[in-house]
Amino acid sequence: MSHNSDLRDRHIAAIPRGLASAFLVYAQRAENSEIWDIEGNRYIDFAGGIAVLNTGHRHPKVMAAVRDQLDHFTHTAFQILPYEPYVALCERLNGLAPFSAPAKSVLFSTGAEAVENAIKIARASTGRPGVIAFSGGFHGRTTLTMALTGKVAPYKVKFGVAPPAIYHLPFPAPSHGVNVADTLRALDTLFRADIAPTDVAAIIIEPVQGEGGFLPAPTELLQALRQTCDTHGIVLIADEVQTGFARTGKMFGIEHSGVEPDLLTVAKSLAGGFPLSGVIGRADIMDAAEPGGLGGTYAGSPLACAAALAVLDVIAEEGLLARADTIGASIRGALEELVLRNDGVPISAIRGPGAMIAFDIVTDSGEPDAATTKRVIQTALADGLVLLSCGIYGNTIRILCPLTISDALLEEGLAKLGRALVATH
Ligand code: PMP
């Protein structure tokens, strides 16, 4: 049997430290909401591969669809010889688009690529350079998406100057002392001090900030941004990479607000564990890029498209939108019970729509407590639960369990979470 400790040494020798793994235990197999490591230890997965596994590990329907595709072909490059699963998936995504105008979609591989291409499309359609994003937002690790990301450490440290024409507004969050009026005042100042609205191509926002701490964008803000975009001909982009595909109890997070974006970026849970991303958008905007300007050798891999078509079926057949709300209510209930027991468990600010639930770990005086958060996560792992942190202070624990998790496993995972919190404070 291989040991985690042996692989750990090889890992550290072979891979640069810039790619930091949360845990140095090595996966061997996984099924729905459970993972086993190479030593045979079992873990309940509350991280879902960072929001990728809304339909769980290896959903049988997804596996069957990919197996069938494997038996036909694995790659042609859509720019050379196109194929039906790509077209069919775009048709399905266009049908799901949360706006009333006709839609078109284009596929890539990663979330960052989807964001990059949404910006390219917005710039092509408006002929303008500027992009406005939000503090605490996360959009990826490529040079452009790193610049859009609103967090310096660790994402921007040592990586040089940002590309031009990127601006950030403070994201409204009570815990950061910022409200919607502050954000809108900053937007007004930005337009007077730094860039004319007529030079802005796009505003990009996560309907619920993911890496930033599971902070929902207030509806009032989204409505105001929609109005600003309409007034000045700016493209409104909803980054749904983390919020998409039933996580929040709706197909897309922005649907909670009723605000219609012009473009959406999607990835992660779109293809149930296969690398696939896309931009869904208003057809008139999507057609702005010239032929050949969009694409990529592996973009819209047929295997991933087959997986995604099955994922969309599973979401519908298994009622995962409603299931997200039920799971979220159970998680909230368990956390609130811990708080009510009043034995000093240092959790606060339980929040998030659907099954996109997070809470903060704070000191007795209410300050963010990143050190205890780390200890809770490591304690949980030792007890067989994979947990993830997030938030600009590193003191938020977010729960991204598969929406296909059984009630029994959810309960077992929540009991482990409770034990880790009680043991660590
Ligand atoms: N946008 C959001 C909202 C994300 O959460 C992420 C990934 N955490 C990305 C973009 C980047 O996706 P990827 O890591 O697949 O490039």
Automatic annotation (TrEMBL):
| PROSITE patterns with a match to the protein in the record | AA_TRANSFER_CLASS_3
Specify the superkingdom: Bacteria
Top-level EC class as recorded in UniProt? transferase
Q: Which cofactor does it need?
A: pyridoxal 5'-phosphate
Record carries keyword Coiled coil = no
Q: Which InterPro entries does the UniProt entry name for this protein?
A: 4NH2But_aminotransferase_bac, Aminotrans_3, Aminotrans_3_PPA_site, Class-III_PLP-dep_AT, PyrdxlP-dep_Trfase, PyrdxlP-dep_Trfase_major, PyrdxlP-dep_Trfase_small
EC number(s) on file: 2.6.1.19
GO BP field:
gamma-aminobutyric acid metabolic process
Which family does the similarity line name? Answer: Belongs to the class-III pyridoxal-phosphate-dependent aminotransferase family.
Protein name, UniProt field: 4-aminobutyrate--2-oxoglutarate transaminase
Q: Which gene encodes it?
A: gabT
